[in-house]
Amino acid sequence: MHATLLGFLGLALLGALHAQDSIPVQINFQQDKLTGRWYSIGLASNSNWFKEKKHLMKMCTTVITSTADGNLEVTSTYPKGDQCEKRNSLYTKTEQPGRFSYTSPRWGSKHDIRVVETNYEEYALVATQISKSTGSSTMVLLYSRTKELSPERLERFTQFSREQGLMDEEILILPQTDKCMADAA
């Protein structure tokens, strides 16, 4: 019985690792072209915080800069009530270009971040696998250089999110806002 349980857990872990490895990374990723200002157009997640806060979420801005040691400094500015809140994150590069890691100092969660696809001038599709002591979750972000994207790009985001196992109610095209957009420069 004990061996069967261990075998089952091993297979479950192997399946989870395999699923994580099946998330692609942009071919010939060019980090310097990813830097600059982006708008968060879409967000999909199966995490509890997303389900609880989804109805409050709006478009935000994200500024990406490279650090001297090749990591990414990611600063997001978003409306929260009557205020603009900034969140800074340091994405640490891995051996695979276009793949980064991040550990949340607030929650202790570990993030495996992958730039799935981008043309650098219009959009970027980013997938994150989040692991913490209470379980794991998936998050997909759609960034744009402008506040609007073509229906084809929005559909690609939705399709990719579904491919990651996310349900339609876990996929959100963020409502546009002018609030906090100027503060993010």
From TrEMBL:
Please state the Enzyme Commission number of this protein.
5.3.99.2
Q: Which GO terms describe its cellular component?
A: extracellular space; Golgi apparatus; nuclear membrane; perinuclear region of cytoplasm; rough endoplasmic reticulum
Which compartments does it reside in? Answer: Cytoplasm, Perinuclear region; Golgi apparatus; Nucleus membrane; Rough endoplasmic reticulum
Q: Which GO terms describe its biological process?
A: mast cell degranulation; prostaglandin biosynthetic process
Query: Which top-level group of life is the source organism from?
Result: Eukaryota
Alphabetized InterPro entries for the sequence: Calycin, Lipocalin, Lipocalin_CS, Lipocln_cytosolic_FA-bd_dom
* Signal peptide stretch: 1-19
Could you tell me what reaction this enzyme catalyses?
Answer: prostaglandin H2 = prostaglandin D2
Keywords recorded for this protein, A-Z: Cytoplasm, Disulfide bond, Endoplasmic reticulum, Fatty acid biosynthesis, Fatty acid metabolism, Glycoprotein, Golgi apparatus, Isomerase, Lipid biosynthesis, Lipid metabolism, Mast cell degranulation, Membrane, Nucleus, Prostaglandin biosynthesis, Prostaglandin metabolism, Secreted, Signal, Transport
The UniProt entry lists the main location of this chain as cytoplasm
What residues form the membrane-spanning segments? none
Q: Per UniProt, what is one GO molecular function of this protein? A: prostaglandin-D synthase activity
The parts of the chain that form a coiled coil are: none
Q: Does the keyword Transmembrane apply?
A: no
Report whether DNA-binding shows up as a keyword of the record: no
Give, as one word, the top-level EC class: isomerase
Domain spans labelled Lipocalin/cytosolic fatty-acid binding:
35-178
Subunit organization: Monomer.
Q: Which family does it belong to?
A: Belongs to the calycin superfamily. Lipocalin family.
PANTHER family linked to this entry: LIPOCALIN, PROSTAGLANDIN-H2 D-ISOMERASE
Q: What is this protein called?
A: Prostaglandin-H2 D-isomerase
